[in-house]
Amino acid sequence: MPARAVRIGIVGDFNPDYRSHHATNAALQHAAKAVGCEVESAWVPTPTLEGPQVAEMLSGYDGLWASPGSPYRSMRGMLAGIEFARVCDRPFVAT
Hints:
The protein has 95 residues and is of the alpha/beta class. It has a single domain, classed as 3-Layer(aba) Sandwich (Rossmann fold). Helix content is 37%, strand content 20%. Strands 2-1-3-4 form a 4-stranded parallel sheet, with helices on both faces. Strand 3, helix 3 and strand 4 form a beta-alpha-beta unit.
């Protein structure tokens, strides 16, 4: 039975004009290939993390990545994502 894919939540507001956002997606796929696993990633817009549903929205991810490219549409949402990672002991990367 194949191992399930690693799920990574990219906390940030995807902007197709930012090369770094495309590079984030590519970096995750490149790293997964290098270590022989599969990765599923999804962008989590910062405004969606402003309410009490933060844990519900982020608990399905194995790790979180704070995207480059501030200012964020919601700094409050970004900070809520970071706090979730710290409090719930989730792997967290910020660039």
